[in-house]
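Task: complex structure prediction.
Instruction: return structure tokens for all chains below.
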Amino acid sequence: MPVEIEENIKTKSGNLRTEEMILNMGPQHPSTHGVLRLELQLEGEVITKVIPHIGYLHRCFEKHAEAMTYPQVIPYTDRIDYLASMGNEFGYAVAVEKLLGIEIPERVEYIRVIMAELQRIASHLVALGTYGADIGAFTPFLFCFRDREKILNLFEITCGARLLYNYIWVGGLSHDLHPDFVRLAKEFTSYFKPKIKELNDLLSYNRIFTERTANVGILPVETAINFGVTGPMLRGSGLKWDLRKNDPYSVYNKFDFDIPVGQGLMGTVGDSWDRYFVRVLEMSESLKIIEQALEQLPEGDVTSAIPKRVKPPVGQVYARIENPRGELGYFIISNGTPNPFRVKVRGPSFVNLGVMDELCRGHMVADIITILGSVDIVLGEVDR
Amino acid sequence: MIYDFFLKLFGNDVLAMLVSSLIPLFILVLPFTLVAVWLERKVSAHMQDRLGPMRVGWHGWLQTIADLIKLIQKEDIVATDNDKPLFNLAPILVFAGSYAAFAVIPLSSIFIGSNIDLGIFFIIGISGLVVAGILMAGWSSNNKYSLLGAMRSAAQIVSYEIPTILVVLTMVMITGTMNLRTLSEMQTGYFWNWMIFGGPDFGVAKFIFIPLMIAGFIIIYISTLAEVNRTPFDIPEAESELVSGYHTEYSGMKFAMFFLAEYANMFAVSVVVVALFLGGYQSPFGYLGNLFNAHWLIPIEQFFWFVAKGVFFVFVQMWLRWTLPRLRVDQLMALCWKYLIPIAFVNLLIVGIITVL
Amino acid sequence: MKEYLNNIWMGLTTVFIGMKVTLKHLFVPAVTIQYPDEKLTLPQRERNRLYVNMDDCIGCDQCARACPVDCITIETVKSLPTEDLGKTSNGKKKVLWVTQFDIDIAKCCYCQLCVFPCPTECIYMTDVYEFSEYERGNLLYNFITLTPQEVIEKKDNFAKFEAEKAAQKATAAAEAAKKKAEAAVNPEVKKTIAKPADKKEPGNEKPNSSASAGNNTAKENVNSNINQDKSSEEGKN
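Output:
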């Protein structure tokens, strides 16, 4: 008996190892922006590995698309990234129109650009507001949502819905602009400019905010390119890559706007503050585009090019657009029937989430929230 | 004076003592706490362009009472693995620590709960009870997150007591007394006699003191903000990181006690800061009682000014909460040890030298 | 040392700037609308609950086919030639009784795809958004204006009508078959029979050509001709 105990003690003291603690930031957490499960392996307070577990919001979009006709897929595409629905519809419409090879009236293109840019502002407002709320500043969250209400009102008078629009159809739009739209949109642009300055005063340059976000989650450019990261994350790391300039679609080549890039003003290039600030600057660039588009808006009929039956020839197409979160791509295979054979969505949040492990190594638990907020994921896009 | 009044009434000194020490509690602190909760919700709402509670009573002023009734009738959940004596004792300690500080605070020139010569020292000592209570709450909850929150909170409170004590020491050096009543008495006259503007003695020293006093005021305000766990120092209660920290596991009346204790604590520290720097219960402009020759009016006026100044600083605390984001734990500690303490020391040295000269 | 002082200065100034913003907002009137007492007026194109005006519905099933989530179920019954169902508001004549028009509003995704194909614009989206129910079954909306007895009656009528027609057809065909069988015995009638044979589809020629030899030739010819006549009759119908 004494020998047993001795042996036990020997093995116990010989096998002294510091166990890594596994902490689970479960699917229901106030700050994971949806149902995302992050499994953290910690050593003390420092993170050694992050494993994201996804799939809690999988709704079989790609399988549904095979059973619907081409126009019927559009309400489903709305729901992939529910905070930027116009972007999703836009990408799908561009893809199917490429497959069909039809020409679209110019008015339709301009209106699509206006809607997409308004949607970009709305989506960035949500991202910035919730980012501030995670960090602890509750007031900018409400200010951002109040401004977003104005944009949603603009959408509501045009197509009747505030969040999931079914507005951009294959070959055109479902309704023409409301007669009051241009006037209200101009009012919005003049209302919103001082609000960006207010947001900067309250949050962006605040010392505590910069202390929390600068030098946290630094993403070097090579890592970003290797992981396939796109959107404000890539631009925050210093690379000037935007599909609206590098691979123009629709009428973006007619507008004069700048691509904001992270410059490491408050810390190193590619940290969370850079990604956050790129989004703030993008909002003002979008305002510029909207103003120019409203000036140049041509007349025309928005429903004239919508085909009666969408039956593309056999073939496949990959079309990509610049979603507020990155490059949204649609790969559609058609086999000549009214239903698509395969619709694959390349969701930017899904690809951006893959770089979480690289970003979080060596940081503390409190920084995970900061980094996750700056990646700006929407679980609908990650899981589809 | 109120003690004498009750002594005459009851004839029994123990009873008189009891009643006169409970008075500040029931006429000031408890109603104030209830009002403070409502005030916080309305202030935060209007700063965020919304309305806050509007339905329960006129503009929602009965909302706190409704919440309190709801909390009282909730089930008191005690998990099986909790350390029951500690679990039940923790909210009581926190509550008691916060409310006991009011014993030595002068509400007006005729009323102070207990006129001991160790005023501020007593307050700082009693705040230690709060630390013990928080640690007990975190440990006995048997919850990883609560324990983390409690330890952080304890570390935060203990570290931030040091700048507080250093600034208090500065004031004690200048005025030579720890009794809050005497301190307030010294700042009679108009507002330029307040300590923040250099003190009652006129002279060159007064003008040299002003920047030092302002620095000291800012330091003590920030440190006391950290002591009551308010944003930007509310890591222990951070919702998005630890889901409510050390009082996650509490429900019902015990949670209500933590909640009320927080607001009472806020009031206590803001009142202490006011007493040290801004003249306690003294009016900035002279008394109406003096103007009309009604000397009985003066204590009431003083009480009014006392409450007004306290409420103003509580409002500033709320204002800061809704403006600033949260500091991370290590940044919090860095702020305390690398910035506040050295500056407080330098302040102490310079004031000390000037006082001696 | 310089950075230390800079940190302190930046810390204090940015905090004060932020506080100024919040204080300014303290005096801005709130944007909240007290909901049950005040309600927003919704724009004209608002997409909330669906409504079907059954007077205009012709039962064409376009909306059910356009729906991406299959929340509309329509069943129709042909009306008798004697019945007059009236016209829709834009002049179309209605010929179908709509015996089932259910919309499961719990499934509806409010996409508006059913509104566009309707030829009479009888299905449209209203601005009603307060239609919560305590029972989930109450969310299955029935829009038909016929009572259940009427539905059964219409179906019976149609079934009877079909049965009568079928019976008539059967007797007529039997008589025609008799006549043709008698005529097939006469050689003159054979020539007239050859005419429909010209119009025959290639698929039907096979029994004729294959059965060219044998005693059964005439009968098979007659049978196949009878089949051909029946199908041409039905084609006319």
